[in-house]
Amino acid sequence: MYDLLLTIIEEIGYFALFLVLCLGLIGLPIPNEAVVMTGGALAESGVLSPLPAFIMTFLGICSAMTFGYSIGRFAGSKLSNWFSSKKNISRFVAKSEQLSDQYGGYAISLSLCLPFLRHVTPYVMGMNRMPYKRFVMFAYPSALIWTLIYFIIGSIVGDKVQDLSNHIYQYGIWIIVALGAAIAGIITIKHFKGKENKDPVDRPM
Questions:
Q1: Residue 39: inside a domain, yes or no?
Q2: Which residues, in sequence order, are CB contacts of 172 under 8 Å at separation 6+?
């Protein structure tokens, strides 16, 4: 899987990152996490330039989400019966509907951390006639943050991307939660340390 991705990148360069993320919609067996982390690892090693690599991965995620939304918006009614007849797909659609009912537009953000749901949820949002501007408001900033996190992880782990991606694919949402908690903890500690430094020091009379 990892070797296949590297071969595609060697053949067509930066566009491979965009293309593979789009083709993930039709079952290309390379998890999105592995693609983005590989972009980060190759950028850190100097094989790719960081900015173009990041932009192509970000645009690939956005295009995949937008395509799913468009299918749901314009062909959802025609596909819903077919999805209902497919047990595995209908299960994910139902789960996505549940997330949408509970969290509204934030379901798009949550679904990015969940394999396959990240493809189904934009479709469900389109099928439910979410306005495109509202979809963009949730989808693209979430994609930016998600892509940035995994791009940075890839730049740190380097050639360990394949091993790590297998675990992330299974436990992605918990890793995101852990990273978020760690970042929040660091910010809180820095805030209180900065506050202590600004407080006047009591001096004996």
A1: yes
A2: 33, 113, 114, 115
Number of structural domains in the chain: 1
Do the Cβ atoms of 3 and 45 come closer than 8 Å? no
In a domain, 205, yes or no: no
- Residue among 77, 92, 71, 90 nearest 135 (CA): 71
* Angle CA 87–69–166, to nearest 5: 60
Q: Per-residue pLDDT tens for 17-60?
A: 888 887 766 555 677 888 888 888 888 888 889 999 999 999 99
Domain that holds residue 15: 2-197
Residue 204, pLDDT > 70, answer: no
Structural domain includes residue 203: no
Distance CA 44, CA 28 (A): 25
Domain assignment of residue 204, yes or no: no
* pLDDT 10s digits, 103-156: 888 889 888 887 778 888 888 898 888 999 999 999 999 999 999 988 988 888
Q: How many angstroms from the chain centroid is the CA of residue 65?
A: 10
Q: Are 172 and 36 in contact (CB under 8 A)?
A: no
